[in-house]
Amino acid sequence: MLRWKRHQLSNVWTRNLDRVNVLGNHRHGHTGCVNALSWAQDGELLISSGDDQDIRVWRMDPSTDSNEYPLSCQSVIHTGHTHNVFNAQMLPHSTQIATVSGDKQVRVFDVGEAVGRSPTGSEMTYTTNEACKRVLRCHTGRTKRIVTEDSPDLFLTVAEDGTVRQHDLRTSHVCGGHRCPAPLVKLPHDLSTIALSPLTPYQFVVGGESPFAHLFDRRHIGRYLWEEWGMSPATADATTCVRKFSRHSRAPGEPKGGEHITGARMSAWNGHEIPAFNSDAVYLYSTKDEPGNSEQLKKSSVLAPNVRLRKRPGVCTSTIINIDDDSGDQDEREDLTIDAEEQDSVPVIYPRARFAGHCNVRTIKDVNFLGPYDEYVTSGSDDGNFFLWNKISGELVDILEGDGSVVNVIEGHPTLPLVAVSGIDTTVKLFAPSRGRPEFSRLEQATTIVKNNAHTSRRGLRGGDGMAIAHLLLHYPMKRKTTRM
Question: How many CA atoms lie within 13 A of 328 on its CB side?
Answer without folding.
Answer: 1
